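Researcher: Re-running this chain for the archive, since the previous output was lost when a drive failed. Same request as before.
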Amino acid sequence: MTSLCRNLVALLFFVLPPMHSHFFTNAASASPPITHPQIIHMTDMGSDRQDDYDSEEEYDTTKAPPRVVKVPKMHQKPQLCKYDACSENQVPCATLFEQTGCLCPGMSGANVPPHPPRIRALVPVSEGSDRGKIQVQWCAPSSVVSEYRIVIEGRDGEVPKFGDASRRGLVRSLEVGTKVCVVAVNNAGSSDPSEFSCKRYEFHESSDHTLMAWIIGGGVTLLLLVVIAALICVKYKKFRKGKRDSTDGLTKAHVEHCDLDKCSSAVV
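Model: Regenerated structure tokens:
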């Protein structure tokens, strides 16, 4: 009997551990899984600078991640400076560039001889204290200029000089056909005369002179017409008077002839 009990105890000792592990395995499979919060690593995408570290933030997995929207920067196209090379005493283009950021035309530096300026016109002055002089007008070149000089053909000793902001200058009266050149000067030298920096003076009467000439011509013509009309009237009057005198003479002679006939018939 004692041996039988020992055998039952040994049997239970070998059978109970497998059942115990099977029981706990089934219990573990039947229980719901444990959910752990998810950690998402995100880098900064909204700033222009790249950071050397990553920030760790804990997000709820039930919510959608925030949407990052990049707004593109609008770049405006640079505008040309409001600079006229033919206008006098205006703000230099370099100053306009520093103030507004506009674009200036390409210019050669001060260490390079300037390009020739462009001469515009030779205009005679008809009024004021400068009457009889010639105004020379020009446009600045795309170069750094310190002064301008006007060179006149046949006047080697007379070279008027003007400042870098000038675009016109007065010279003495010119003969028709005289060649006039505008020269630009800087520290590196002077520009060479060219086809568009020189011009020959051609006299053109001003509109006032033309109007005065028309007025004088019209007055002379009107006076001539009046004189011709007066002469025609005088001649016509003389012609009428002569014709009337001749008619009166014939009438008088006829009357006298009739009287003589009456007298001769009465005598008979």
